[in-house]
Design goal:
Blueprint lengths: L5 H15 L4 H47 L24
InterPro entries: TatA/B/E, TatB
Pfam families: TatA_B_E
Main location: membrane
Amino acid sequence: MFDIGFWELILIAVVALLVVGPERLPKLARVTGLWLGRASAQFHAIKAEIAAELRAEELSQTMKKDADTTAKPAPSSYDTRATTKTDQTSEPPHG
């Protein structure tokens, strides 16, 4: 996430030791660790939510495209008009 090397961490630790003091440094480190952990968790949650929204949008677009292609009538080589049957029943002869 951050491009901080070993010597930069040592420098930050020395400055923190001078500014905060040796008594409060462990508590500061613990609180800083908690805040960084929470920030990291929030970052990953937001990243996962954005990825889920993108997948949902892609699925929606795919479904819309499929619905558009299936709604178009396919060209056919046969006549699809309905045919009517004639009444082929005959009455028995009287007599």
